[in-house]
Specification:
There is one protein chain. The protein is about 40% helix and about 15% strand. It is of the alpha/beta class. An eight-stranded parallel beta sheet has the order 7-6-5-4-3-2-1-8. It is globular and about 45 Å long. It starts with a helix and ends in a 5-residue tail after the last helix. About 40% of the residues are buried. The mean pLDDT is about 95. Bound molecules: pyridoxal-5'-phosphate.
């Protein structure tokens, strides 16, 4: 089933060659094993503890496995997070930047941008982005590889993907983490390099 879903997802790539992050949060073990059997090696998780439980024991069997943190990160969990994850998509504040820098100075990170200026949503606002980017790269010399966003539910996603693309270009940041099951095809049109797809690949999440 996952092989079929993978084929369907790739049908919409057209000429793009994105990195597909298989979002495995809240998926049962048999689906995880099926994805590994299908050759998928890049997975996304949004909770540190859940990711440790799902992946720590599998890491030794799959040396080429890459795990991406795509959910909010508390500073007191950074130490554990950087031991498991290979990439963090949710860098959005100075305190977190300092903590990641302390424990894993070379960690590849995406800055999460709150393009919709939504109060309840994580991410740095567009007006603070340039300063924050300079803080991360110049003051801390961090490895910032891209920008990430999650568009508001009720807005046309393309508007937000376009904004993120524009800022990445302006700052010469190479990668864009944008697009989920419902809108990755749109994200690809705006230059997404990393798409985060969960339910369209695995089916609905449990719980
Ligand atoms: C859960 C999640 C996804 C995947 O969502 P789907 O709609 O199931 O593809 C992508 N990005 C983030 C940040 C998520 O939390």
């Amino acid at each position: 089933m996952i092989t079929d879903n993978l084929r369907d997802i790739r049908k919409n790539y057209e000429n793009a060659h994105p990195e597909l992050i298989a979002v495995s949060k809240k998926q049962p073990d048999d689906k995880i094993d099926e994805a590994l059997d299908a050759g998928i090696r890049i997975f996304g998780e949004n909770r540190v503890q859940e990711a440790i439980e799902r992946w720590e024991h599998r890491k030794s069997s799959y040396p080429d496995l890459k795990l991406h943190l795509i959910g909010p990160l508390q500073t007191n969990k950074v130490k554990h997070a950087v031991q498991l994850f290979d990439c963090i998509h949710t860098l959005d504040r100075k305190k977190l930047a300092r903590a990641i820098h302390t424990h894993a100075p070379d960690m590849p990170c995406f800055i999460q941008v709150n393009t919709g200026e939504e109060e309840q949503k994580a991410g740095i606002s567009l007006s603070d982005l340039i300063n924050f980017y300079q803080f991360c790269t110049t003051d801390l010399n961090m490895n910032i590889i891209g920008l990430m966003c999650i568009p508001p539910r009720d807005a046309p996603a393309g508007l937000h993907f376009g904004l993120l693309h524009k800022y990445a270009k302006k700052l010469s940041i190479p990668h864009l983490s944008m697009g989920m099951s419902g809108d990755y095809d749109i994200a690809l049109k705006y230059g997404a390099t990393h798409i985060r797809v969960g339910s369209k690949l695995f089916g609905e999440r449990t719980k």
